Amino acid sequence: MPVKPFLLLATRPEDAAADGEYEAFLRHAGLQERELVRIRVESVPIPTLDPADWSGIFVGGSPFTGSIPREHKGDTQLRVEAELARVLDMVVDVDFPFLGACYGVGTLGSHQGASIDGTYAEPISAPTVELTDAGLVDPLLAGVAPVFQAFVGHKEAVSRLPEHAVLLARSASCPVQMFRVKTHLYATQFHPELDRTGLMERVRIYRDAGYYEPGEEAAIETMAAAATVDSAHRLLRNFVERYARY
């Protein structure tokens, strides 16, 4: 058991979605509740964080769309974005273990100068993700298949990475599925925490959020039942095993 817990910064306002995400991170990262502290930052401000208190930081997915104009963002989103930017100032400065999933691509990417827009948005699906040469030798992807499926569903993505970022995984529909900054800062466009049950729960919760057209739920469920996403889950366990402070 890690002496210092991991931290999950969560932004989902819906209790069912937030709790389902937390449970998914616990299950697929192999952590107990005492080992993964969650802060629901849509509800409470992010406190001042000291890296010495934590083994690593996760950022989960979000209903927020970071690339929309500022005037279309609510006060909560603007606060969360400003607070996450301060967290990223800290973790990037000291190269502290960080893994952002989906929304984490936009937050870390924007912080590092990536272009984030709707060019490579993906519907709810399980695309084939391919590791790059750098991904094949990255320790966080040890044991992850060179080609694997993972669940996605997002309105924005990285369309251009800054030169100092390392591309680790890509897909035909989204050229930046995972990248690294420095040595210990990671972000994935796909959801390493999602399994079929979790995906369908989110489909029902976000049925009116514009991620899919009315009447597509049955087709999504058929797609999800046929997908094999176990390899993507390995990434979370690798993060814990690599960075847990015992």
Automatic annotation (TrEMBL):
InterPro entries linked to this entry: ChyE-like, Class_I_gatase-like, GATASE
Domain Glutamine amidotransferase: 84-195
Pfam annotation, one family: GATase
CDD domains cross-referenced by the UniProt entry: GATase1_1 (cd01741)
GO cellular component terms, A-Z: cytosol
Annotated protein name in UniProt: GMP synthase (Glutamine-hydrolysing)
Species this chain originates from: Georgenia muralis
Lineage: Bacteria, Bacillati, Actinomycetota, Actinomycetes, Micrococcales
